[in-house]
Amino acid sequence: MVAMKVLVCLLALRLVMAATNVIHEAGLGPAVTNQMFCSRDENSHEETRRCPFPFQALGKECYYFGKNPLKNWQEARSHCLGLGGDLATPSHPYKLYSYILDNFASPAHEWWVGASLNHQRSGFEYITTNEPLRSGDWHPTLPQARPGQDCAYIHPHNQRPWANFPCTNVERFICQYP
């Protein structure tokens, strides 16, 4: 009887592994695997959220990673609004930053997020909540208040997520579903 239970368990494990390989070969990645087989995010032990297509769960937040074509900040925001979301305003910027570094082969691209310079308050804020971005989350020499560098992006080349560019630059972008 014990041998039968062990055999059933091993067969179930092989099925899960085979399904995981199919998912990865299809280019759908670990997020789909986690949604199919796990009720919790493996790294944080927090409940994951179900997200509408084309968004994917990262903890309790839903993101869409726009890679092609590259867009300027306003075009990226329009694209996100068209999907029913907006540019990302992550509650955990380092979690999103780590996800980008771990899951996209080419970290050479920056990613627009939903934060911009509020000229009245002289600081960068999330566009949906007007919450200021924490100063400790910026590249050490930024944000620079140079004219025209009013839009924030995730900077994959250093140890802190935020940096700022001219809004007219074309980059990848991250949408977030409310």
TrEMBL record:
UniProt keywords, alphabetically: Disulfide bond, Signal
Pfam family, one: Lectin_C
CDD domains in alphabetical order: CLECT
Cleavable signal peptide: 1-18
Top-level lineage group: Eukaryota
Limits of the C-type lectin domain: 58-176
PANTHER family: MANNOSE, PHOSPHOLIPASE, LECTIN RECEPTOR RELATED (PTHR22803)
Name this protein carries in UniProt: C-type lectin domain-containing protein
Organism of derivation: Petrolisthes manimaculis
